[in-house]
Amino acid sequence: MGVAAKDPESYLPLTESVFHILLALTDKERHGYGIMQEVKRRTKGKVKLGPGTLYGSIKRLLEGKWIEESTERPDPAINDERRRYYRLSELGKRIAAAEARRIVDLVHQAREKKLLPDEAVGKLV
Amino acid sequence: MNFTQRMAFAAQRVYGWLLTFYPLKFRSNYGPLMTQVNRDLTREAMAQSGFLSLISLWLETIKDLVASIWKEQFDAWRRDMPPKTRIAFLIGSIFLGISALFVIVNVLQYEIGINLAWNPFDIVLERTKDTPLRLVFDAVILFGPAVAVGLFILPHVEIRLRPGEDELAAIVIHKVEGLSLLLIGLSVLVLGIIGLYLVGENLPCLIGQQVSC
Q1: pLDDT mean across residues, chain B
Q2: Is 70 exceeded by the pLDDT of residue A119?
Q3: Cα–Cα distance measured from residue B34 to residue B125, given in angstroms and rounded to the nearest whole number
């Protein structure tokens, strides 16, 4: 997860938890609990990140500069000094996009092999 | 404060204690944040269906702790540990692993009576019979857990030479970390089982109740 290799493709495939964290941070800055809630909501409870898995991944994402710690608070009204907010870096965005393209490509291949009905794939692409 | 609230409070304290099993650096960076998230999750569980949600949360929490503690410990071992400490942990783990496996295999085969298709220790005992290697094998099995305890303690011990002061030298034992504590505990357990096994086997001879020893 170093920063030397610039090609986002070289970081793929991502683990499920890492991709979900990156997705959760795509639209806005969130704190740890906010990321967990967003992942749970988006996957309808199928993916639940525990605090250990979440902060282990956050540690590695920060080290790789895929995400950054934000000093600004998205909503000053609910500002909580104890919480740390994270946002996606440019590198993180490129990697998340590359992973999404990889998944779409896999789905295309699955469609070619008639593993998925066409209408289900149409929604994805 | 009702029973569920008391349980929730106790669970949060236990969670804080379990965080000691993470590497120190990780714990100091993320421990307070993880505690905060655990508090949020507990509050959420309490708001749902109280005690049952709390049980469900704890099952998930244990799964998460087991998976992530080993991952972070391995990460710290690989990246943050000084080479000397890393070697001590590796050798200690090998010693403990061999002795623990010996105990497990023997208890399964000879105490519980499960017929194992392949017992690596029987093969080693057979092949090293009447050779110096047998002594090495016996020494590893008998003293392995004790050596492991020493090696797991070693990273926390500092020997300071203080010429010019009242004392010539000092041995300082730093706070033993969670993982070391767990491994020391396991080593002592294996050591105790081997000790009991040996005493149990040889007790009639030791107290002179058996003629053919």
Answers
A1: 84
A2: no
A3: 49
Size of chain B, expressed as the number of residues it contains: 213
Distance (Å) from the C-alpha of residue B42 to the closest C-alpha of chain A? 12
Tell me the CATH number at A82. 1.10.10.10
Q: What is the ipTM of this complex?
A: 0.83
Residue B159 lies in a domain: yes
pLDDT in tens, B73-86: 888 888 877 888 88
Question: Which of B32, B61, B71 is nearest residue A56 as measured by Cβ atoms?
Answer: B71
**Facing B34 at nearest CB: one of A48, A55, A83:** A55
Q: Do B91 and B143 fall within a single domain?
A: yes
Count the neighbouring beta carbons within 10 Å of the beta carbon of residue A5: 10
CB A66 within 8 A of CB A22: yes
Q: Which residues of A touch B64 (CB under 8 A)?
A: 50-53
Q: Are B169 and B162 in contact (CB under 8 A)?
A: yes
Q: Which domain holds residue B171?
A: 83-206
- How many beta carbons lie within 10 A of that of residue A99, not counting itself? 20
| Model confidence, pTM | 0.73
Rounded to whole angstroms, the Cα distance separating A83 from A81 reads 5
